[in-house]
Amino acid sequence: MEMTFRWYGSAYDTVPLWKIRQIPGVKGVITTLYNKQAGELWTQEEIHALKEEVEAAGLHIAGIESVNIHDAIKIGTPDRNIYIDNYINTLENLGKEDIHLVCYNFMPVFDWTRTELARKREDGSTVLAYSQKAIDALTPESMFDSINGDANGAMLPGWEPERMARIKELFESYKDVTDEVLFENLKYFLEKIMPVCDEYNINMAIHPDNPAWSVFGLPRIIINKSNIHRMMKMVDNPHNGVTFCSGSYGTNLENDLPDMIRSLKGRIHFAHVRNLKFNSQDDFEESAHLSADGSFDLYEIMKALYDIGFEGPIRPDHGRMIWDEVAMPGYGLYDRALGATYLNGLWEAIVKSNK
Ligand code: DNO
Predict the structure, then answer these.
(1) For the CA of 65, the nearest atom of ligand 1
(2) How confident is the model at residue 135 (pLDDT cuts 50, 70, 90)?
(3) Res. 156: pLDDT tops 80
(4) Would strands 2-6 and 313-316 be described as parallel, antiparallel, or unpaired?
(5) Residues 6+ apart with CB under 8 A from 190
């Protein structure tokens, strides 16, 4: 595996590249053109400039997270082909710049959903948290208003104000999109992009839905082992792969994470590893990465990745906010750096004990 760190770009991230460079073992960043709307074309010049900036700091781009998918593709409207063509051209431009990993998601309307962005823990740190009761008492609009105030001025992926302004309309446009339709539309999209992925050796790594069930009545399909295997089979090309995100699949306690990893041998192109602490079946918070601080055994997760011969980029995922840091919720420097160091330690021990 290659330890990496997510970076949103100098215009958006509170963490500069030079600090990332000082995290032991981190040479690669996972980045994006965060100003791009879903469906927009990324030019080769823009990608090249991003690459130069990263390389000037002594790092390299290990992958893109995300190139977002336009709603027309997920809904399957007639104009989807325009956006698919843009996507294909973007992939081609990434390939020409020698970038071979793209993380994306197929969640309708929003990206990940949390009900609190700064829940206080006993030690004074704050974390992202989710409570089903809170969701049940909210509408998407009221939820946007309630979390926006806690975002430390950052723009949360998938919750951009311009999208939220159209939220009723967006919900309306998904009214006939069932899980089956969403699967069909994903298949259509993947079949169109696989040729360019084959040509440039680009690994597509779908990110799971977070949480791994339907919220606000929207369909959600990338949630468990059987659905992810259905997706792998329906477009059976090694470039059609997954981002294994323990914190997303882990939201559903029925998902056996090490077992899922083992079953996806050869198709995991990217891994997000972190812990969650369940307070009850439907209330969880994003704890520190350490196994003892949460509900998952991170050693078993790393061991499963080792056992399948995982060689792709991995990154610590959302961190707690500690030591008075002010940053995008989940994306501060300190706790993610602790996470990277902990995961590196687990990996070193696993490698050595298997020699
Ligand atoms: C949350 C992230 C997601 C992820 C996208 C991928 O912090 O893991 O926002 O980047 O779902 O498209």
Answers:
(1) 10
(2) confident
(3) no
(4) parallel
(5) 204, 234, 235, 237, 240
CA of 352 to the centre of ligand 1 (A): 32
Burial of 45: CB neighbours in 10 Å, binned 0-12, 13-18, 19+: exposed
Structure tokens at 189: 């999209």
pLDDT 10s digits, 170-229: 889 999 999 999 999 999 999 999 999 999 999 999 999 999 998 888 999 999 999 999
Distance (Å, whole) CA 184 – CA 175: 16
pLDDT digits (tens, 9 = 90+) for 2-15: 999 999 999 999 99
Please tell me the pTM assigned to this model: 0.95
Going by alpha carbons, the residue nearest to atom 6 of ligand 1 is 104
Which residue's alpha carbon is at the smallest distance from atom 2 of ligand 1? 112
**Phi/psi-derived region of residue 224, left when phi > 0, alpha when psi is between -120 and 50, beta in every other case:** beta
* Size of the chain, expressed as the number of residues it contains: 355
Find the largest Cα–Cα distance for the chain. Answer: 57
Q: Name the residues annotated as catalytic.
A: 207, 245, 272, 317-318, 331
For residue 148, pLDDT beyond 80: no
Q: Which atom of ligand 1 is nearest to the CA of 66?
A: 12
